TrEMBL record, chain A:
<keyword id="KW-1133">Transmembrane helix</keyword>
<comment type="similarity">
    <text>Belongs to the complex I subunit 6 family.</text>
</comment>
<keyword id="KW-0249">Electron transport</keyword>
<feature type="transmembrane region" description="Helical">
    <location>
        <begin position="6"/>
        <end position="23"/>
    </location>
</feature>
<keyword id="KW-1278">Translocase</keyword>
<keyword id="KW-0472">Membrane</keyword>
<keyword id="KW-0812">Transmembrane</keyword>
<feature type="transmembrane region" description="Helical">
    <location>
        <begin position="30"/>
        <end position="51"/>
    </location>
</feature>
<keyword id="KW-0520">NAD</keyword>
UniProtKB/TrEMBL annotation, chain B:
<dbReference type="InterPro" id="IPR010096">
    <property type="entry name" value="NADH-Q_OxRdtase_suN/2"/>
</dbReference>
<feature type="transmembrane region" description="Helical">
    <location>
        <begin position="216"/>
        <end position="236"/>
    </location>
</feature>
<feature type="transmembrane region" description="Helical">
    <location>
        <begin position="141"/>
        <end position="162"/>
    </location>
</feature>
<feature type="transmembrane region" description="Helical">
    <location>
        <begin position="303"/>
        <end position="321"/>
    </location>
</feature>
<feature type="transmembrane region" description="Helical">
    <location>
        <begin position="174"/>
        <end position="196"/>
    </location>
</feature>
<dbReference type="GO" id="GO:0008137">
    <property type="term" value="F:NADH dehydrogenase (ubiquinone) activity"/>
</dbReference>
<dbReference type="GO" id="GO:0016020">
    <property type="term" value="C:membrane"/>
</dbReference>
<feature type="domain" description="NADH:quinone oxidoreductase/Mrp antiporter transmembrane">
    <location>
        <begin position="137"/>
        <end position="459"/>
    </location>
</feature>
<keyword id="KW-1133">Transmembrane helix</keyword>
Length: 204, 526
């Protein structure tokens, strides 16, 4: 049952991803983008990676995609231009197909192949197709997700951590400098648009 | 412990510099001139150089000290390259037109062709911060974060002149292709992590050194592919040959004062990171080999060698057809990158020494070339401005025609610099090429050495073309007779010092040569 849901969500994500770039109206396209994120979040939640899944919902759906939606609605783009551009890039479809399938072949042949026990044809459809392509009987399990690696310290061994606690513990003790670096990058990300867009009084 | 404290002081210096500049730029009613802010940033970088030089204690550092729970590692190489980066960065901040000079106060309006931007030094500090983190990072996540910090600031720097159409388009191109290479680096890191479960570079090296080629191929093949993809991302960022397409367009599109930074600084730190990866793989017995049809194939070394060969050839041959001077410099950069990659791939003690020396001499020479180019631009156009809306930048080689007659000293300095790039004997560039070629021949890379010698002869012809234009072409007087300083004293002082350093290196080579050989020794024998 679980794998079937996973496949369904993966399929939904890929389908909405295709619809994002093929739909002619940009507003519809952003709505499909939201659907991609929701599907991906559901996929992650089912896999057991709860925190990342929830933050997908909060960050991407809640903030970024809605922002996109507003911006696209405000821009008021003429549909005819987009349609003509769309006609131009269908010429590149064969090239895109070749590059895409090469990429998939690479990734599928490279990724860890420890897909031991999963369902047969109706459940693990993608795994079955992978198996056809690669000539190996591959299928994968979604049961074990190791949430955290507990060090030998005493404070870790008393309690089992929740996911968020595990991430927090790792980030604030072990990787505190990453936090600092990330904050400098965010500061830069805030300064950059101001620098590029603000006109000083003398410029006018 | 002590090293870690000193390193922390360095970071704090840079971040404090960022904060104070940010406040100074944002203050509404205080009219601090942008040139003053660049000077302040330059002094901040000089202090940072002193701090990092202070932390360079070879006895205490040994083979490297892990700091911040092993996410970063301070080694002798990283400390000295930090110092070098800060010094070169401080010099790049010098060449601004004298907008604030009291002599020019009355003539300020005619200087409107020289845009000075208050945010420029701020972005410089950000990218330097990223560069110094990158040089000493010892973890895949640290590498990615610092490379993002470095390049993100450089993208903004490239687009800083937002009124210029060419700068905006070049900046956008740089941003998109830089994003692509960052994505490659991320993909590579993910593959490495998916297969080994490790992000610490030291641990990855150790894991790769266990077992022979067979084990690597069957068990860790994808990890090696991941590392290869990562290195492709890095080569993208240093514009090595098959991945060089963006660099001529970007260098040519952005104003020269930004090109100076783009062409020199991001390369140094990424090359040092490649050096650290190389020394990590070099000591794992198997290196990065895969079995292809039963024959071991060293992926890493071949990648570097192929990229080096293509860089040498493309940088030279395509450079012959250029008539825009910054595109020409971009192709010359690509061919120098070929030399650097060759020295890196050989990976013997003397080749690493020549690699470090080449980085130092190439950065100095290139910096001098760009400083002189800027000076020529101010001389020619700062009062009259260009007709075609490129500010005060020298755009075409023909812009410089006959300039030896108008500015003999500048012309002479540019000639010396170009001779050094071409590798004419008494100048510093010759010794760089000679050391690389010597180490390559010594390790048996005859074909690559032959190619390198031939292309460096060919490349001499395009440097000589510029020299011919400066010295022997007809001189057309475009400048008017304003008797005012057109460039600052500190700018001409920097040009003089660098030209002296390039020319007189042969009399006192021990300072740079001893340091580079000492660094190579610490890499191999500690």
């Amino acid at each position: 049952m679980n794998t079937f849901l996973l496949d369904l969500l993966a399929f939904g994500a890929v389908l909405s991803g295709v619809l994002v770039i093929t739909s002619k109206n940009p507003v519809i396209s952003v709505l499909f983008l939201i659907s991609v994120f929701v599907n991906a979040a559901g996929y992650l939640l089912l896999l057991g990676v709860g925190f990342v899944g929830i933050s997908y919902l909060i960050v991407y759906v809640g903030a970024i995609a809605i922002l996109f939606l507003f911006v696209v609605m405000m821009l008021n783009i003429q549909l005819t231009e987009i349609v003509s551009v769309g006609r131009e890039y269908t010429k590149n479809l064969p090239l895109g197909f070749i590059v895409g399938s090469l990429f998939f072949f690479e990734v599928l042949s490279v990724l860890p192949a420890s897909y031991s026990d999963a369902g047969e044809l109706p459940l693990g459809l993608f795994n079955y197709i992978n198996g056809l392509f690669l000539g190996v009987n591959s299928s994968f399990t979604s049961s074990d997700v190791h949430m955290t690696f507990s060090g030998p310290g005493a404070d870790d061994s008393f309690t089992g951590f929740l996911q968020i606690e595990a991430i927090g513990q790792g980030l604030y003790t072990y990787g505190s400098l990453w936090l600092l670096l990330g904050s400098i990058i965010l500061l830069l990300a805030m300064l950059g648009p101001i620098t590029l867009c603000m006109r000083s009084a003398s410029d006018k | 412990m002590c090293v870690s404290m000193l390193y922390f002081a360095l970071t704090v210096m840079l971040v404090l510099g960022i904060f104070s500049l940010m406040t100074a730029v944002a203050l509404p009613n205080v009219n601090i001139s942008p040139v003053l802010l660049t000077r302040v940033a330059s002094i901040v970088l000089l202090y940072a150089a002193a701090l990092s030089f202070n932390a360079l204690d070879i006895q205490a550092i040994g083979s490297g000290v892990g700091i911040y729970s092993g996410l970063f590692q301070v080694s002798s190489v990283s400390q000295s390259i930090d110092t070098f980066i800060f010094l070169v960065g401080a010099m790049i901040l010098l060449p601004w037109a004298p907008v604030t000079n009291s002599v020019m106060a009355g003539a300020r309006s005619v200087f409107s062709a020289v845009p000075t931007i208050a945010e420029y030094p701020l972005m410089i500090l950000f990218t330097t911060c990223g560069a110094t983190f990158l040089v000493s990072s010892a973890d895949l996540v640290s590498v990615y974060l610092s490379i993002e910090l470095q390049s993100f600031a450089v993208y903004i720097l490239a687009t800083l002149y937002r009124d210029s159409e060419s700068a905006t388009s070049a900046g956008l191109k740089y941003f998109l292709l830089g994003g692509l290479s960052s994505a490659l680096i991320l993909l590579g890191s993910v593959l490495v992590y998916a297969y080994t479960g490790l992000t610490n570079l030291e641990s990855i090296f150790t894991l790769l050194s266990v077992g022979g080629v067979e084990n690597l191929t069957t068990g860790l093949g994808p990890c090696i592919i991941g590392l290869t993809i990562m290195v492709v991302g890095f080569l993208f960022k240093v514009s090595a040959a098959p991945f060089h397409n963006w660099s001529p367009d970007v260098y040519d599109g952005v104003p020269t004062i930004v090109t100076t930074w783009l062409a020199i600084m991001p390369k140094i730190s990424i090359f040092v990171l490649l050096l650290e990866l190389q020394s990590g793989f070099g000591f794992t017995g198997a290196s990065l080999s895969l079995l292809v049809d039963g024959v071991p194939f060293d992926v890493w070394k071949n990648l570097l060698l192929v990229s080096s060969l293509l860089s040498l050839i493309i940088g030279t041959v395509v450079g012959l057809a250029q008539y825009r001077i910054k595109r020409l410099f971009a192709y010359s950069t690509i061919s120098h990158v070929g030399f650097l990659l060759l020295a890196l791939a050989v990976n013997s003690e003397e080749s690493i020494e020549s690699f470090l020396f080449y980085i130092v001499q190439y950065s100095i020479t290139n910096l001098n070339a760009f400083l002189i180019l800027l000076a020529f631009g101010y001389m020619l156009y700062s009062t009259v401005g260009r007709k075609d809306g490129y500010g005060t930048d020298v755009q075409f080689i023909s812009d410089l025609s006959g300039q030896f007659r108008a500015n003999p000293l500048l012309g002479l300095a540019l000639t010396l610099t170009l001779f050094s790039m071409a590798g004419v004997p008494p100048l510093v560039g010759f010794f760089g090429k000679q050391m690389v070629l010597y180490s390559a021949v010594h390790s048996g890379y005859y074909f690559m050495s032959l190619v390198a010698i031939i292309v460096s002869v060919i490349s001499a012809s395009y440097y000589l073309k510029i020299v011919r234009v400066i010295h022997f072409d007809a001189y057309t007087n475009v400048q008017d007779a304003v008797q005012a300083p057109k460039m600052t004293n500190v700018h001409s002082f920097a040009i003089a010092t660098l030209t002296m350093a390039i020319t007189l290196f042969v009399f006192k080579p021990s300072i740079i040569l001893n340091s580079t050989s000492l660094l190579a020794l610490t890499l191999f024998h500690y």
